[in-house]
Amino acid sequence: MAIDPDELLPRKKSAGVTLGEDISAMSEFELSARIMALEEEIARCRHAIGARQATKSAADTFFKR
Question: Is the pTM of this model over 0.85?
Answer without folding.
Answer: no
